[in-house]
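To the structural biology subgroup,

Please find below the input and predicted structure for Putative DNA helicase, which we are adding to the shared reference set this quarter. The sequence is reproduced verbatim from the submission form. If anyone notices a discrepancy with their own records, reply to this email rather than editing the shared folder directly, so we keep one authoritative version.
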Amino acid sequence: MLPHRQKILVKRGFTLIEVLCSITVFSVLFMTALFIQVDALKVKTYNEEMNNCTLVMEYVKNSIMYNCSYDSLLNLRMKERTYIDCSNLKFQHIKNINVTTLFSDEKPLKEPYIILKVTGEKVLRVNLQLHAKMYGNIKVEECDFYKGNYKK
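Predicted structure (tokenized):
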């Protein structure tokens, strides 16, 4: 009888260990799935912010190219109004705003922001730089175009 009783005690111990192991495996899988979902949400938020900043930069570029005069660009350069803070700007809200009113002379404290650099005399070289924080590093996207003082 004694050997049979030892088998039962050994099986009870294994049953407890099996339950603990299955709970541990389930917890690890659940936490992994949770971290994947949180990371996916962070990437989605980041992509939406970068898309908005890129659309704002494209709008600024097109607005300067087609709607700003040569003199207004020289005026921005003379007043040193070269920064646009993109952190609170939404592309849908700036469509009806004159782009020259978005520029300020104070550098924003945090990213994302756009820097305007105007060089040249007769033909202006306009350089737009989008500074955005990407995974802890600051990434700079640039766009160059030219604006001249042409008479029709």
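Summary notes: Strands lie at 83-85, 113-119, 123-134, 137-148. The radius of gyration is 30 Å.

Regards,
Lab coordination
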